[in-house]
């Protein structure tokens, strides 16, 4: 919903007069067809209503900077990069474009790419014909999961950390147990102390008989 406009001097005078006559906020609102909040703001501080400065980010360009940008186009057709380069302004290309678009005396036009010459077309055709059957070696990146992500596993504590394990494909219970066996046991006593070592030995013994068939 768009914000309403500020009250005029006439409306402010009417609100003050109606209030002095004993009318309520709701009655004043109906008389001038304004919101109740607007009426309340006027009555709270009628002398300073509408005089408060609005906060906001200061502009990056001064009027002098804007004139310099516009004057840089007087020598003839030029690009935005060519305008910005000699001015030493801490702004991006989009800011320069906004200044030019706001000026009624300047017009922007996209640069056209040069057309392909016959030797360009011939070179492209020769390249395509040569590589119809591509036999050169190439590297293909493979990801385990959709979305270009890689699953990793690691552990850490105040006493140390494990190495990073890169998990290949979907993980089953035996895969997770293998990861713990390979990456937790070598540093288990360092990370968790004697109690963890006892617990870890129990777990590995259980895996030894039921899952991993490992000899400890």
UniProtKB/TrEMBL annotation:
InterPro entries given in the database record: Homeodomain-like_sf, RNaseH_sf, Tc3_transposase_DNA-bd_dom, Transposase_5, Transposase_Tc1-like
Bias kind Basic residues: ranges: 51-65
Name of this protein: Transposase IS30-like HTH domain-containing protein
Domain Tc3 transposase DNA binding: start-end pairs: 5-50
Region: Disordered, residue numbers: 45-65
Pfam families per the UniProt record, alphabetical: HTH_Tnp_Tc3_1, HTH_Tnp_Tc3_2
Record-level Gene Ontology MF annotations: DNA binding
Domain (Transposase Tc1-like): residue spans on this chain: 67-132
Cellular localization per UniProt: Nucleus
UniProt GO cellular component terms: nucleus
Transmembrane regions: none
Biological process terms in GO annotation: DNA integration; DNA transposition
Organism the protein comes from: Dinothrombium tinctorium
């Amino acid at each position: 919903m768009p914000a309403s406009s500020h009250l005029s001097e006439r409306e402010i005078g009417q609100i003050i007069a109606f209030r002095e006559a004993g009318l309520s906020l709701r009655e004043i609102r109906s008389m001038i067809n304004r919101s109740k909040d607007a009426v309340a703001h006027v009555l709270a501080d009628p002398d300073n209503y509408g005089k408060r400065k609005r906060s906001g980010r200061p502009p990056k360009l001064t009027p002098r900077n804007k004139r310099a940008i516009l004057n840089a186009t007087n020598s003839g057709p030029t690009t935005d990069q060519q305008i910005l380069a000699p001015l030493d302004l801490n702004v991006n290309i989009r800011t320069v474009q906004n200044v030019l678009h706001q000026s009624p005396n300047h017009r922007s036009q996209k640069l056209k790419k040069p057309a392909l010459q016959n030797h360009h077309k011939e070179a492209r055709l020769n390249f395509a014909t040569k590589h119809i059957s591509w036999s050169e070696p190439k590297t293909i990146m493979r990801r385990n999961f959709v979305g270009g992500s890689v699953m990793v596993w690691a552990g850490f504590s105040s006493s140390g950390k494990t190495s990073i394990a890169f998990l290949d494909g979907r993980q089953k219970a035996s895969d997770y147990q293998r990861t713990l066996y390979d990456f937790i046991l070598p540093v288990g006593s360092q990370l968790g102390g004697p109690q963890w070592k006892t617990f870890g030995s129990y777990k590995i013994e259980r895996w030894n008989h039921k899952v991993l068939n490992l000899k400890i």
